[in-house]
Amino acid sequence: MSFAHSESPSIAARSIGARVPRGDDPRLLTGRGQYLADIVLPGELHACFVRSSAAHARIAAVEVEDARALDGVVAVWTGEDAAKFCEGIVGELEVEGCVATTMPLLARDVVRYVGEPVAVVVAESRYVAEDGCDLVDVDYEPLEPVLDPRSALRGGPAANEELPDNVALRGGRVLGDVEAAFAGAARVVEATFHSGRLSAGPMETRGVIADYDWTSRRLRLWTCSQMPHYVKYCLTAYLGFPENECEVLTPDTGGGFGQKAHVFPEEMLLPLLARELDRPVKWVEDRRENLMTATHAHEQFVDIAYAFDADAKATAVRIRATGDGGAYHQPPWSMGVEPWCTAMVTPTGVYDIPVADLTYEAAATNKTPIGAYRGVGYMAGTLVRECLMDDAARAFDLSPFEIRRRSVVREFPWTNPQGIVYDEGSWLQTIDELESMVDYPAFRQRQAALRAEGRFIGLGLSVFVESSGESTAMGKAHDLGGVYHDTATVKMEPNGSVTVTIGLTTQGQGHRTTMAQVVSDALGVPLEAITVRAAESTTYGWGSGTVGSRGAVIAGGAVLRASHTIRTKLVALAANMLEADPSDIDLVDGAAVVRGVPGSSVSIIDLATAVYFDQTSWPEDFDPTLEATLAYDPARPIFSNGGHAMIVELDPDNGFVTVEKVFSVEDCGTVINPDIVEGQIRGGVVQGIGAALLERLVYDDAGQLVTTTLLDYHMPSMDFSPPFEIHHLETPSSHTPGGIKGMGESGLIAAPAAVLNAVNDALSHTGIVLHDIPVTPEQVLRALRS
Amino acid sequence: MTQPSEQVSVEVEVNGRGYRRSVMARMTLADFIRDELALTGTKVGCEHGVCGACTVLVDDEPARSCLMLAVQADGRRIRTVESLANGRSMNPLQECFQKHHALQCGFCTAGFLMSATALLEEGQPTREDIVETLSGHYCRCTGYAPIIDAVEEAAAKERS
């Protein structure tokens, strides 16, 4: 079945491809950005949460009277108060074997992880609200905490009684004769990997402001969300706010990385408080809360095995991905998406592996719910695939480049065992390009020379293919439901200026600049005449969320389709005015010109003015609406690809690993703005280096989270960040606007594997092979000493 | 002894303008700047003194405004990100940040700019000086390399 909103008109790239500086920057650089905490509503109250100090306990009593009596405290709610309005928010992943959970807005009867909200105090100031929280006394009767996901799946106490066997997700598929492939293998390489528990760690924490007007039943909710339309849907579905009087507003946002692509209990509670208290209510999360409760990410245990033939070509894969899911499914992504994606999507990657045995499972544990973080499911999947490939390289005594060339897909379109079709890609070229960038023979010489001096350097390689431009077709290709499309509105005013609104919120990705570049090329107007507004309010447009590397593709498609409607009118008008055929008109450099007729042109400004004010210039049956809203959803799934090679140095005395240099190859089709693409690569790769070497959320044996400040949860700082060399390959998509592919997640998806491979290469003369990240100094020293 | 919620008088110069306010003794300098003076360019990222987003200059020295009380700023001279632009144009440091794409979400940027400003005012920082000084700031978007390049170019512009 085909749909009109999947067609994207062609576009001549002029501004597209240029390093256009971001229009947002002067505002942000002068302190004029307006983030959530910067918004002040008259009469606003401040909310602060009492959070569980126990991993798993029965709530015997919640004593709130002292808090209620405190001067300046306006209200204190517990789970019972919230439950009068909403039983909780339901989370599940729509795949085989997922069991839903309901997350209460405030815990009732039982708490299931440290940090779970138990009560909320609302006061005249944030300071008093925090004082009030200190006066709330919760009496906990401890229950046994469930902390080990693999033993939890074998039985024992339940982390959440909705999931009595702790199985939140379990399923899989066997595709082809995997048994025979392994039985006939010349060599089998296998390992168990653990990727650690992470926080996305956006510099701006979460926050919500709710304002309700009972006269109109109008709710305005400010939230720094990546999915404001989904939040709005939840406000109507769970809380009953009328859709037409419900507006979700998204101010400047200090990073999201997937963490802000959920709906949270706090977002549902604040509107209720604002309505019941008849005052605006604000909540700004602090960093401790952010690290404790704003979803954790990426933690999995993965068993993976590859069968190889005698030529070192991979012939089969077997994988079991086990997620440590936390106490609830956080809607909409749930604890399921991480292991499901690792098992069902990533095991073959860029390799022609014909048969696969895929198993996914997620265990409920008494920890913070797992949610999305940049490259959800893909990071762990790429880690295990690419690191196992390096294990195989060592087993076959081949270079990391050569082992990959033995199995890489060379012919397109290619269909993997799961039935996912890849239309095009530069998968082999990526491997070759990285090999020449690192100068492999020279690296091996330098490595040998340094080893002789007692210094350990290593080279690690990781190549990836990334689903991008999250779409309905992408979902279908992966046996997922869901309809994803966004709209954009393009409006040209009498002076020929253009205002664009898109359905995506933006968290620093520069969408306002890249979308202006698309419009500039579609309409021939200069960038200065174009203003792009992101989804600052759900009043404008529709958006399925800034997730899944979809921004450039989906917003680009919607913007291009809407621009094309305007373009068609400008061309018709110009043809009439210039007495030319519409097919001979080009819009370029601020004018409509007749191709091949020098001097025959009319400015876009004159055309726009004529649309509004000069009916005599119009052709027959002309419709002067210079405003168009159109949707876009690509007809087919889109995949970008690339790879990273990293050189690290491991200090055998103290176990520290530092990254000396990163070489990156990215193929996201047509590049709209290289500065922005490179910014996404560097940022994502450094997050990946953090995941591989530094970052780890740690629970103790009682289920206490012990990493609750940025001193304990150690993200990469400047002295830890390597220099980059970035090369672009361009294999345009045949069916997206201008051939654009998405790439926002690729850095984090593939970097940790490159780091771990480089560490193992640095240690290759010792026989040590590590399979867990982060590679901490303790882990390195323990391995070196054993 | 002064109680935490007792009101105390604070007199400061912020971005060249004098202010006198009565505030709670426990109010942080960050909250004072943001809530009392409505200068919201200074951001609060962690309230633990780790991330550096809230950095301002107190008597020309970088300070974490989340770890300082407003009363401790009494009688002192403060500069925030709002002081940097030259009239209606960005200063060279800000221009270099834009040119090198040294910011994405912009939340950490004011802190980087203020520490870099102090560093540039101290003299001629080398690339190593820049990295050492600015490693006290977190940025989650850029991967840092463009920030180093931006400050390095701003230092070179000052030399010329």
Automatic annotation (TrEMBL), chain B:
Keyword vocabulary terms for this entry: 2Fe-2S, Iron, Iron-sulfur, Metal-binding, Oxidoreductase
Keyword Cell membrane in record: no
Classification via Gene3D superfamilies: 3.10.20.30, [2Fe-2S]-binding domain
Segments forming domain 2Fe-2S ferredoxin-type: 8-84
Pathway stated in the Swiss-Prot or TrEMBL entry: Alkaloid degradation; nicotine degradation
PROSITE patterns given in the database record: 2FE2S_FER_1, 2FE2S_FER_2
Entries under CDD domains matching the protein: fer2 (cd00207)
Domain of life assignment: Bacteria
InterPro entries, alphabetized: 2Fe-2S-bd, 2Fe-2S-bd_dom_sf, 2Fe-2S_ferredoxin-like_sf, 2Fe-2S_ferredoxin-type, 2Fe2S_fd_BS, Beta-grasp_dom_sf, Diverse_Oxidoreductases
Pfam family, one: Fer2
Molecular-function GO term, any one: oxidoreductase activity
Alphabetical list of PANTHER family matching this protein: OXIDOREDUCTASE WITH IRON-SULFUR SUBUNIT
Protein name: (2Fe-2S)-binding protein
Organism of derivation: Blastococcus saxobsidens
Native organism taxonomy: Bacteria, Bacillati, Actinomycetota, Actinomycetes, Geodermatophilales
